[in-house]
Design goal:
Layout: H1 17-29, H2 36-52, H3 57-83, H4 91-112, H5 122-145, H6 154-167, H7 178-192, H8 200-213, E1 218-221, E2 232-236, E3 244-245, E4 257-261, H9 263-277, H10 294-308, E5 318-328, H11 330-341, E6 352-360, E7 363-370, E8 381-385, E9 393-404, E10 407-416, E11 420-426, E12 436-441, E13 452-456, E14 464-471, E15 474-488, E16 492-499
Amino acid sequence: MNKPAHSTVLAEPGADAESAMSGLLAWLAAPPPDDPEHDLPEVAARLDELLGFGTAGNQLLRVLDLFFARAHRLALEMRPRLAASFLPLPRGLRQAAGRLADIHCRLASAYAGQLDDAGIAERCRLSAATRGLRSTLDHYLARAAMATPAPPDFWQDAHELYRRAGAFPDTNGSNGRSEADQAYFTLLALAVAQPESLTPRDLWQASETLALHWADVEWQESAAPPGDLEAWYWIDRRRDHGPVAASRRAPLANADVVYFTLARMAQTLVEQLDALDGGAPVDSTRLPTSAVETDVRALLRRLYLRWLKPPKRALKRRHQNYRAQLCTGLGEVWALLMQNNAEGQLAPGLVSEWMIQNESANGFAAMHVGGEMQQLRPGAVAAMRSPESDSWAICFVRWLRSDNPEHMEVGLEMVAPKAQPVRVAFRSGKRDENPVPALRLPPLAASRPREALITPRGSCVARRFVMIWQVGEKICVSQGRMRSFDQQTANAELFQFDPDPYPI
C-alpha cells in the first residue's frame, strides 16, 4: 500500500498559531503521496485545520492558493480512475470523489469569504473570486462524475461569486477577468449540456473544448434580447438554480435576470470540426488535441446540437409504478438474449430489479430497487423487460442520477422492442479479426425502415460485413452492407444495413 510521505498528525487544540502554520506550510512543501486517494483525506483535514486557525487577509489567501494548486492536481490525477469506472462507483472511489468535491466546495467558500476584506488589494480579491469560481467548476465536475446533482445553494453561490468578480476594476485591460469569465461560462455551458447524460470522459472533453471557445458566449443583462429566443437561456442571480431555456419558461417579473446564448460558440465549434474533417491539422483549429479521435469529434457534434438548440420533450410522459428487470452492457445483453433463446436459467447477477416511474412512447425513467447494478454509464446498451412481457426491449442509457450509492435513477431510450443476438465480422482484409457480438434489430415503420445492428464502439471498420447467428442447431450466415450511423455513443454504434448485393 502506498503510504503518505508525511505525518498525518494535525495541530493540537490551543497550539501556538505560528508554529501550527509553520507545520502546515512544511506539510504543503513536502512531496505528496503518489496515490491521490491516499492524499485526499489528509488534504481535507489540513484544509479544515487552516480554516480553524482564524487566519485572514493576505496570509490566508497565500495558503489557500497552495491548497488550490494541490486540489487542482488531485482533480487531474483522479480523472483516469473516474473515466474507467461504471456507476455506481466502488465505495472507495466514491468516497475519494466525494472528498475531492468537498475540498473544492470549501475552497470556493473560503475564497468568497475574503472578498469583503478591505485590507486586501482589489487585484488580490479579483484573483480570489476567480479561483473561487474555478474551484466551483471543479466541484461541479467531481459531482457530475458521480452522477450526483449539485447541492443546495450551489448555483446561488456561483452566481454571487461571478457578480463579485465583475465588481472589481479590470486592472489588466479588456481581458483582466477572462479567467473568471471562462470558469463561469464553462459552468453554464456544461449545465446546458445535461451532464447526467455524459460520461466522466465526455465531461472533461467538453470542459477542455469550452476552455478554447468560451469567449464566443453571448451575454445580455436585464432585458430579453429581441427576436427569436429559441437559442437563449436565462439565469436568475438571486435564485438557486442553473440555466433555464427561454423557449421553455419565462423568468418571474421580479427576477434578477441575465440572458445568454451558446449559438455563436456552437457554430464556431462545428466550423472547426468541419475543417478538421476536411484534412486541416488539429493545431490549426481551436479544438483540443484529442479531437483527432473519431469518438471525440462525434461527442463534440452532439454537444453542438445541444448548445445550438435546447432539446424539447416531444412525447408526453405517463406516470407508472411497476417493476421491471434490467440488464446493462452490450456483452451482457448479448449473453442474456443467447440464454433466453436457449430457454436456460438466467445467470445470477445478470439482471437487476427496477421500478418504472414514468414512460413515453420512446423511453422510460426507472429507479433501482434490487440486485447488482453493472455496466451503468450514459450511452450503455440495456435490455428491459416488464413482468407481462416475454421479450426484452433494447434501450440506450440516456442519463443517470445518484444521490447516494444505494439510490440510482436511470433514463432509457428504447430503440427496438426486441433483438436477435448475432456475431458480425467486418470485411477489413485482416485475417486475425474475430466476429464481435452484436444485436440485430427489426425495422421500425415510423423511424427506421431497415434492419439495424448495434455493435461495440469502434468495431465498424468497413461497410461490408458477414453476420452469423444460430437457429436451433443450424448456423445461418448472411452478408450485409452498412448505411450511415443512426446513433453513436461512448460504448456502442447503431446503424441500418441492406443485404449485400454482391455476395461471395
